[in-house]
Design a protein that fits this description.
globular, 339 residues, 2 domains, 7-stranded mixed β-sheet, Rossmann fold, 10 helices
Length: 339
């Protein structure tokens, strides 16, 4: 007999349906989480449109890699004390035995790419069963709506750790979406002398300042700040974002790239990189250390994602959520679904 519970399923690009959801009991080393909220982001839109690179999605799939919830059951070998705990969880399913995993670089796992919501069932369902080692427990009083943003926050934390901003340095963030705002909050916690945010619309200026920015400008504004920043985090993924970001750096400055632009984007000028001795680092996903950094910052109040949430929809609003994410409307921030 059916339970009445439903999960979102994409059978192929553009083919969305709600299907009956049967919770999968946790096996040894696993935990089952009751999902409270799921974030929708640009990569979910790629899955819906069929534009995600081959090898990084496997249909049919239940999307949902940004989520929060409460542990409802655990399998053999998992501490029973986890049951009832609020939690979030990593999406990358690393092997833990290869050289890169042993070095802590789990997003470079040599066993290949597997991730919740892309190649494995995601959280756009009432429950999600996953390896318990991927869970990050939250404080008992944690707001699960805000916590649903801890996956992008972990990616922002990976960028912040690679940026390694020191107190008193000048820092900038290019991109004022969810990832950019979260990165700004984490960089602001490092006490930079200045934190510039560069975006496409002045409508994002107030939120940028709430996120810790001391200055805001749009990408097309004339400016005298080119070449003066110690560290720049690129979080836009736009075709020109990498070059815009590199131009902000002083000689010897550090650039951290997080966005993945479409093919044909403007690349960095190797001559400029060499002559100005720029350091370029990149981020794809988040290691356990980055997750732990984001969760600690959230738990102590240095990371406040809730103001970034602008829309909450039921699970059957998935296609509406995808449309909102791709609308380009500066009034649209993080869109959440409620399974």
């Amino acid at each position: 007999m059916g339970t009445g519970a439903r999960a979102a399923v994409l059978d192929r690009p553009g083919a969305f349906r709600l299907a009956e959801h049967t919770p999968r009991p946790p096996g040894p080393g696993e935990a089952q989480v009751g999902i409270a909220a799921v974030g929708v982001c640009g990569s979910d839109r790629e899955v819906y449109r069929g534009s995600r690179p081959a090898g990084y999605v496997r249909y049919p799939v239940t999307p949902g890699h940004e989520w929060s919830g409460t542990v409802v059951a655990v399998g053999e070998g998992v501490p029973s004390a986890l049951v009832g705990r609020k939690a979030v969880g990593e999406g990358f399913r690393n092997c833990q035995v290869c050289e890169r995993c042993h070095a802590g670089e789990t997003t470079l796992c040599e066993a290949g790419y597997e991730e919740t919501g892309f190649t494995l069932p995601g959280a756009m369902a009432p429950t999600l069963t996953l390896p318990a080692r991927l869970l990050h427990p939250l404080p008992d009083d944690a707001d699960l709506t805000a916590a649903a943003l801890l996956e992008p926050a972990a990616c922002a934390a990976a960028a912040a750790l690679r940026a390694a901003v020191r107190p008193g340095q000048r820092a900038a963030v290019v991109g004022t979406g969810t990832l950019g705002m979260l990165a700004a909050q984490l960089l602001a916690a490092c006490s930079p002398a200045e934190l510039l945010m560069v975006g496409l619309s002045r409508e994002r200026a107030a939120l940028a300042r709430t996120s810790g920015a001391t200055r805001f400008r749009t990408a097309d504004e004339p400016t005298g700040d080119v070449g003066g920043y110690d560290v720049v985090v690129e979080a836009a993924g736009a075709p020109t974002a990498a070059r815009t970001s590199a131009a902000l750096l002083r000689r010897g400055g550090r650039l951290v790239l997080t966005g993945i632009p479409a093919p044909g984007a403007h690349g960095l000028d190797p001559t400029d990189l060499v002559v100005r001795q720029l350091e370029v680092r990149t981020v794809f996903g988040a290691t356990p250390a980055a997750w732990a950094h984001a969760v600690r910052a959230f738990a102590c109040g240095l990371l406040t994602p809730l103001p970034l949430v602008t829309h909450e929809l039921p699970l059957d609003g998935f296609e509406q959520a995808i449309a909102l994410v791709g609308s380009g409307d500066p009034g649209v921030g993080k869109v959440l679904l409620r399974p």
